[in-house]
Amino acid sequence: MEQPEKRRPWVVGVSGASGTPYAAAVLRGLLGAGEAVDLVVSRSARLTVLDETGIPFRDGHWQEDLRTWLEQPLDAGKPEAVALDRVRYWPAGDFAAGPSSGSYPAKGMLVVPASTAAVAGIALGLSKDLLQRAASVTLKERRPLVVCVRETPLSGVTLRQLVALDEAGAVVLPASPGFYAGAGSAQQLVDFVAGRVLDAAGVPHGLYRRWKSDV
């Protein structure tokens, strides 16, 4: 059991963009690496999770819903059991939550997927919900922030906001799967993007086959 005073989680923010399988793969990767996780799911993301998986995400039943979500395979196959003892969930409207304060001991934050609305809110410092507030705190505390934007095409406004995030120190990581890793299924393409997110955070994983030069 972790000692509370030594717990330093990664904050994972799930916004309302399409791409909840990316969030699930990142969460599985973090837990598989032994990392602690603080999870924030925006209100619009709840609808996206329901649309893309058929699974509700409820504050009062978050453990049950999260386990069902993470254990649902994207491709046909036997789901793997997921231990949630290192996950702490914060409702998106809870501005008194730990991640809303710079004194809260977090390693950094991963926003997966990041909608254009979330990108705008973080870039402008709007802090309209806990996800945006936690991201703003991550930037001001100079902690790692990875923004996995999932939108196409991108407007000039969003491109300028992404540049602003890059200049503020965030890693802007489009959800752009690579095919060179020999992916043969949709889940492998999802895992590639999730693996790149974890790479940017410095978290070890085995989600995809890395490039090896023949030279």
From TrEMBL:
Query: What EC number(s) has UniProt assigned to this enzyme?
Result: 2.5.1.129
Residues holding FMN: G16, A17, S18, S42, R150
Which InterPro entries does the record associate with it?
Flavin_trans-like, Flavoprotein, UbiX-like
Keywords, A to Z? Flavoprotein, FMN, Prenyltransferase, Transferase
Where on the tree of life does the source sit, at the highest rank? Bacteria
Note the Pfam families from the entry.
Flavoprotein (PF02441)
Q: Where does dimethylallyl phosphate bind?
A: Y180, R196
Question: Coiled-coil regions in this chain?
Answer: none
> Where in the numbering of this chain does the Flavoprotein domain appear?
10-200
The catalytic activity, as recorded, is: dimethylallyl phosphate + FMNH2 = prenylated FMNH2 + phosphate
Query: What is stated as this protein's family in its record?
Result: Belongs to the UbiX/PAD1 family.
Say what the protein does: Flavin prenyltransferase that catalyzes the synthesis of the prenylated FMN cofactor (prenyl-FMN) for 4-hydroxy-3-polyprenylbenzoic acid decarboxylase UbiD. The prenyltransferase is metal-independent and links a dimethylallyl moiety from dimethylallyl monophosphate (DMAP) to the flavin N5 and C6 atoms of FMN.
Report what the protein is called. Answer: Flavin prenyltransferase UbiX
What gene name is given for the protein in this entry?
ubiX
